[in-house]
Write a structure and sequence with these properties.
The protein is of the alpha/beta class. It folds into two domains: 9-87, no CATH class; 98-249, Rossmann fold (3-Layer(aba) Sandwich), CATH 3.40.50.620. The protein has helices at residues 9-27, 33-50, 59-87, 113-128, 148-159, 175-188, 206-216, 230-249, and strands at residues 98-102, 133-137, 166-169, 197-202, 221-226. Strands 3-2-1-4-5 form a five-stranded parallel beta sheet. Strand 2 (133-137), helix 5 and strand 3 (166-169) form a beta-alpha-beta unit. Helix 1 packs antiparallel against helix 2 (33-50), helix 4 packs across helix 5 and helix 6 crosses helix 7. The longest helix has 29 residues, at 59-87.
Length: 253
């Protein structure tokens, strides 16, 4: 019978990549939990791949290594799925009544690069569909005093979008709350969950957001994915992997 022989280099290599990515993001002033946690995971992996200890010969350690490889395969498959979804996006033929823009971080009351990409896409869609209402959704970030939605509305107005078209949802703190509270806001304005809706978010987030939207009660939703800046892309994909697992455990789908 063939015996699997797991080598420590994979731990060290992946851990080093996570540490390098996190260090780079810190140098460009991107610091949040999604940067700190991968750095911590990277440090643990580098340690496990570098040390020589008696417990590394235990059977339990072999199971840990096997679990690591299975996780790595699942992560690669997830990354492949995200890449395929980005290539397959087609926004032709949309006739939305509502455009919902999901929030992201707003350091110093300004849209982050990720959020700016979402807003630019939403503005383009709003220009193409002048009768569509635009819902901007996002509460107050940690250590911020202004809601994401307020920053988003200001950004769109500065680009030339008529203020009367914008609805502000400023209480949500998660994707699930984004969509629950935005639907309530839509219904309060006299529209129904059947309204043709484009959900604007980042490209890596479209799959999970669409599933959450359906679970939250939206009946006629398509997603539009804004590009993620390259220097943040793989960190965002890694965070989305864990968010996918978390959403499943919390029954958001």
């Amino acid at each position: 019978m063939m015996r699997l022989n797991f080598k420590p280099w994979a731990f060290t290599a992946l851990g080093g990549m996570l540490l390098a990515q996190s260090a780079y993001l810190v140098t460009v002033k991107v610091t949040h939990l999604g940067v700190i946690l991968p750095a911590g995971l990277g440090a643990v992996l580098v340690f496990l791949g570098s040390v020589q200890a008696p417990w590394q010969h235990w059977l339990a350690w072999k199971w840990v290594q096997a679990g690591f490889w299975l996780w790595l395969v699942s992560l690669g498959a997830f990354f492949g799925l995200l890449a395929l979804r980005q290539q397959g996006q087609n926004l032709q033929g949309l006739r939305p009544e509502v455009i919902v823009v999901l929030g992201s971080s707003t350091p110093n009351a300004q849209p982050s690069p990720t959020l700016a990409e979402r807003l630019n896409l939403a503005y383009t869609l709003a220009q193409q569909h002048p009768k569509a209402r635009v819902i901007v959704s996002g509460g107050v970030d940690f250590r911020q005093t202004v809601s994401e939605a307020s920053v988003m509305a200001t950004y769109l107005e500065a680009k030339g979008l008529d203020k009367s078209r914008i609805l502000v949802e400023d209480r949500s703190t998660s994707t699930h709350e984004n969509l629950v509270y935005s639907l309530r806001l839509l219904q309060a304005g006299g529209q129904t969950p059947q309204a043709a809706t484009v959900l604007v978010t980042s490209d890596f987030h479209t799959l999970r957001a669409s599933w959450i939207a359906k679970n939250a009660g939206w009946k006629n939703v398509v997603t539009a994915g804004a590009p993620t800046p390259l220097y943040m892309r793989y960190n965002a994909w890694l965070r989305e992997y864990f968010a996918f697992v978390s959403g499943w455990l919390l029954r958001e789908y």
